Amino acid sequence: MGLEQQIQNVADLLKKSRRVVVFSGAGMSEESGIPTFRDPGGIWDQLDPEEVGTGPGLLNSLTRMPDKIRSFLENTVQVFLRARPNPGHLALGALEKMGILGTVITQNVDNLHQEAGNRQVLEIHGNLYRQRCLSCGYRKTLEREVFLTRVREALRELMQLDLPSILRFLPQCDQCGKPMRPDVVMFGEQVHVLHESFRAAADCSVILVLGTSGVVYPAAAVPQRAKEAGATLIEINPSESVYRDLADIRIPLKSGQALPAIVERLQQAQRS
Ligand code: APR
Fold first, then answer.
1. What is the 89 CA–ligand 1 centroid distance (Å)?
2. Average pLDDT over residues 101-123
3. Which residue, 6, 105, 146, 227, shows the most beta carbons closer than 10 Å to its own?
4. What is the mean pLDDT of residues 82-99?
């Protein structure tokens, strides 16, 4: 079956479905200039997840290889400062406005789904711009520019990337004055909203699986939960993932290409 026909089939399916959920990963933001983790040239190609993906690993690496970590963080700040919702994100915003898409369950921490207009976003791995107090747990969201500019200043001014110096640079909690860290989930830490994500998956009739390799648990179990509950699973990914055999429809395209084409078909149907 040709790609055009597959895209039409997905549009037809979404048109008659009302409980549509999205499960997204790093591939969703690749076209916004944010590298994925496991693709060639991805983040885990540049750095060892053991060295920077866990709290203790990162602190250890900061003192053991400060230049490598500093340039990685400086580059990451630039990447996130430039990142904006791509046509794939905007298409999901349009699907929510059309009353088709309900909840977006994401592994991404880049806030791009919300910036594209999606309001029901469950962030399993947290959000880079939301800060959490290391002491009392109080949370506060900073503007992207405010947070990233602060990181850039810290990287410029901090001669040494050791813990005491970093703690002095972290934003202070409004409630208890203690340091706050980005509310993102590192390896070995508790994920967020897992129960809500499993419930949304078990309750949907269609799940769109977008740009994820599906290898990191417990998040990767979300599509399986939807499938077990009888949902139709549609995957959009230019390469094969662990969901290839679970997918009822697989569209081997980039999400920024496929999703706008699907929305276009739905809008055409609405106009006719
Ligand atoms: N559109 C759709 N899919 C894409 C695109 C694109 N433009 N570009 C790449 N992909 C696909 C790749 O083929 C791959 O299957 O996106 C997937 C990205 O996989 P990973 O890099 O493993 O990212 P992800 O699945 O989100 O990783 C899960 O691992 O490192 C941790 O916490 C991190 O949330 C992350 C988790």
1. 15
2. 98
3. 105
4. 97
* 3-state SS class at 102: strand
DSSP 41-85: TSHHHHS-HHHHSSHHHHHHHHHHSHHHHHHHHHHHHHHHHH---
The count of residues in the chain is 272
Q: Kindly give the distance from the C-alpha atom of residue 177 to the centroid of ligand 1, in angstroms, as a whole number.
A: 37
Residue closest to 121 by CA, chosen among 136, 110, 132, 131: 110
Element (H, E) at 155: helix 144-157
Annotated catalytic residues are 125
pTM of the full predicted structure?
Answer: 0.96
What are the pocket residues of ligand 1 if the criterion is a CB atom closer than 6 Å to any ligand atom?
A: 25-27, 30-31, 36-39, 42, 107, 125, 211-213, 215-216, 236-239, 241, 254-256
Q: Give the lowest-confidence range in 54-63, 154-163, 178-187, 218-227.
A: 154-163
Residue 227 to residue 28: CA distance in whole angstroms: 21
Report the nearest atom of ligand 1 relative to the CA of 107: 34
62: closest CA among 165, 170, 156? Answer: 165
